[in-house]
Amino acid sequence: MNRVITQVANSCRLWVISALLLWAAAPAGFAASPKARERGAVAFQTIGCMRCHSITGVGARRAPDLGSVALRRNPSQIRNQILHGGHGMPPWGAVLSNRQISDLVAFLSSCRSNEAPGCRTWQAPSAK
Ligand code: HEC
Hints:
Elements: H1 2-24, H2 34-46, E1 54-55, E2 58-59, H3 69-72, H4 75-84, H5 98-109
Antiparallel strand pairs: 1-2
Helix pairs in contact: 2-5, 4-5
Bound molecules: heme C.
Heme C binds at residues 44, 47-49, 51-53, 62-64, 66, 69, 72-73, 78, 81-82, 86-90, 92, 104, 108.
């Protein structure tokens, strides 16, 4: 009897450990921390994305506004677009670090509204 209880307890422990491992191994884009999002927002403004893109109306108008990009694209599609570019967008895979790319994906995955400010964490020029 005691042996059965020990076996059940052991398999429960295994289950909990595997669940924790799975959670820890989840891709960064899906378990984005607020800090990663914030770093991504800063990167978006400083590395050149805004030469073409805007976020809820703030930025350039040479490419689609990304204020609601997460409604159209999932995190791995966003990552692929950044890595490989295409259709008028240059590829960034060789230019950015893995962390910068994950941060950008974390930021853009939070962009779900065209209503300003939406995911934009910086002020519109007129509001300054
Ligand atoms: C030279 C202009 C240019 C720059 C710089 C640029 N992009 Fe783009 N980007 C585009 C164009 C044009 C498209 C539309 C491509 C298409 O229609 O398939 C696009 C599409 C995208 C998309 C998909 C949008 C959608 O609606 O599906 C994402 C995400 C994106 N860009 C992110 C970025 C990020 C992040 C950066 C900075 C690292 C960046 N882009 C820099 C021109 C640019």
